[in-house]
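Q: Convert this sequence to C-alpha cells.
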Amino acid sequence: MRVVHYLNQFFGGVGGEEQAGLPPEIRPGTVGPGRLLEQALGDGSHVVTTIICGDNYAAENVQEVTAMVTQQVKEAQAELLVAGPCFQAGRYGTAAGAVCAAVQDNLGIPAITAMSGENPGVDLYRESIYIVDSGDDVSRMRGVLAETARLGNKLVGQGVIGRPADEGYFSQGKLRSEFVENTAARRLTGMLLSKMRGEAFEAEVPIKSIDAVPAPPPVPDMSRATVAIVTDGGLVPKGNPDRIPRAFAQVWGAYPIEDIESLRAGEYEVAHGGYDNRPVEQDPHRLVPVDVLRQMERDGLVGKLHPEFLSTTGNSNPLENSRRMGREMAARLIEAGVDSVILTST
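A:
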C-alpha cells in the first residue's frame, strides 16, 4: 500500500511556533512519526511522500493547501492519506481534517486522521472523515498510530467498519440498521425502567446537548456604565495586523478607538468569509457602531465607551474554540472594568 503522510511543522521536525508560517514542503519517504506509522501499517506498506506545512500557513491558505495535497496524493498514486496525529493542536487538527476531506471528495481515496476530542477539527470534520480519538497525551503516539493504521487498512481493504466505541473513532452521527434480539418496544421499555430506577442506560439515538448560559443581571445604571464593542464579523484595521483568517479563526484582536469619533472607510477591512464585506468596508459602523455610542456618551445614555473594540471571525468556528476565545475576551474586559458588552455579528 502506498501512503501519503501530512504533518505540521512541529511533528515534521522543522521547528515550533516560529515556523508556523512555513509553506508546504514535499519530502520523499517517512519523516518523524511516519516511521512508526509505516511499521504499524505492516509489511508491503510504505509512506512514499510526506507533506509538511506550518499551522498558520495552512489556516490562512486552506484552499491552496488542500489543492496541493490532493495533487500530491494523486501524483504519488497513493491508496491512503494519513494526517497527524494532531492531539490538541487546533490549527493542525483543522488543517488535517480539511486535507483529508478534500482528498476523499476529489479522489475517492480513503483518508484518516487522529486528534483529541477538544480539537476543533473534530467538530468540523467528524461527520465526513474518520477521526481516531488520540486523547491528549502525545506520549501515546505509538499506540495512536497503531489504531490509525488498523482502521486505515480496513478503509483501504473496504472492510466492515464497526461502531465508534469498538473501532476507536469519533461518532459520525450515522444510524445503521442491524438485527437485535429484542424489539424496539422492549428496548424502549427497558430504557424507561432503568431511568425510573436511576440506573445507567445508553440511548440508541445520542442527543448532544449544549449547556444553557444564564443571562447576567441587568446593568443597574447604564449612564455610569463602561460599554465595550465586541464583534465576530471580522472587522480589523487595514492590513489585518493579527492575521485573523477568514474562517476557522484561532485568534482575536483588540483595536484602539480612544478619542476616535468615527471609523473611516479605507482604514479598516473585513477578515471574514461567507458574506458580502463591501457594505461594512464602505461604512465600518455597520458592524462596529462607534459613532452611535459616542453620541450616546454625549447624551448621557452610557457612561463611556471602552477605548478598544475586540474582533474575531465567527465563520465555521467550532463551539469549543469559540468558547475559548470568548473566555479570553471576557477576562480582558473584566480586568479593564467593563460593565456591559454590545456583541455584533454579520
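The CA atoms of residues 173 and 207 lie 10 Å apart.
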